[in-house]
Amino acid sequence: MDKPIVALVLGAGSARGLAHIGVLQVLEENQIPFDLIVGSSMGAMIGGIYGSGADIKMLGKVVEHMDMGRFFEVSVPRMGFINGNKINEFIKLLTKNRTFNELSLPVYMVATDLYTGASIILQEGIVAEAIRASISIPGIFKPVMKDDMLLVDGAVTDRVPVEAAAQLGADVIVAVDVKYGVGKQIVINNTLDVILTALDIMQKRQLETICGISDIVIQPAVAGYNSWDFDKAYELIELGREATLAKLPELKEVIKLGQR
Predict the structure, then answer these.
(1) Beta bridge partners of 37
(2) 40 sits in which H/E element
(3) What is the pTM (predicted TM-score) of this model?
(4) pLDDT band at 76 (very low <50, low <70, confident <90, very high)
(5) I need a labelling partner for 244 at 20 to 30 A (CA). Which of 32, 121, 181, 250 fits?
(6) pLDDT in tens, 187-202
């Protein structure tokens, strides 16, 4: 039997998506193999940085001591409060300005085309540009023009892109959901909270699809954190580690069964 294609699917979640770093750390430490990454929004960012060859341990240390607020320059709205130039330069630095062809393993990113409402899989060109499109929260970040598309956050149509992973030929799908779980709290303090909470509500029904298609779903206990809690990076990364460690026996069994 041919070796199964294992996809790691990293979901959207803004600051809660920092838990993906902890997930990747544990998978790497325990030599759990995967052949490709499919990411949406923050999942696309972490997946793209990892695929660009970043040391996942070092990445954790970097984000723990970083003031993310300085990368989000607020301007007079023209399709978005945040132009995105600073965050784009930051992403280019972390991804070494690599193209998809230069990545250490295949990484696919999901964005949403505002013109058609379709979920778009990005897999060509500059990695940083694809990440910038996938994280473009509507109304907050200025959308990204690409060909004849106007791209915004992948989470609008596909917050944990397991269906995309299946379309890409994955035999085994390991999904990481950083939006729902025990202790989900609604915190509304600003415009960003309003927009992200509205998106959460629209996406909640997708959880059944995620669980139905995935072989394993890892859900770090980050539900009690706000979408803008980047200053709690250490806690979020640790929760990603804990959730993955708890799933290790199941992960090893699924991979072993697939290899028979």
Answers:
(1) 8, 107
(2) strand 36-40
(3) 0.89
(4) very low
(5) 121
(6) 666 666 676 677 666 6
Please identify every residue annotated as catalytic. Answer: 41, 153
What distances in angstroms separate CA 251 from CA 23, 139, 236, 247, one per listed residue? 12, 38, 21, 6
Specify whether the CB–CB gap between 140 and 57 falls below 8 A. Answer: no
Distance CA 51, CA 102 (A): 9
- Minimal CA–CA distance to 127: which of 49, 35, 68? 49
In the predicted structure, residue 146 carries a pLDDT above the cut 90: yes
d(CA 130, CA 123): 8
Lowest-confidence region among 5-9, 134-138, 147-151: 134-138
* Cα 161 from Cα 138, distance rounded (Å): 18
Q: Are strands 107-113 and 119-122 parallel, antiparallel or unpaired?
A: antiparallel
Go through the chain and tell me how many residues it has. Answer: 260
Cα dist. 212→66, 166, 208, 259 in Å? Answer: 37, 12, 6, 21
Q: How many CA atoms lie within 13 A of 215 on its CB side?
A: 21
Q: Return the SS3 of 115.
A: coil
* Residue ranges in the chain assigned as alpha helix (H): 19-29, 42-51, 56-64, 85-94, 127-134, 162-167, 191-203, 206-213, 233-259
- C-alpha 68/C-alpha 16 separation (Å) is 13
Q: Tokens 């959207």 — which residue? A: 12
The Cα 121–Cα 109 span in angstroms is: 6
Closest by CA position to 204, among listed 180, 223, 178, 173: 180
Q: Judge contact between 164 and 47, C-beta under 8 A.
A: no
The helix/strand/coil state of 116 is: coil
Tokens of 90: 């930051």
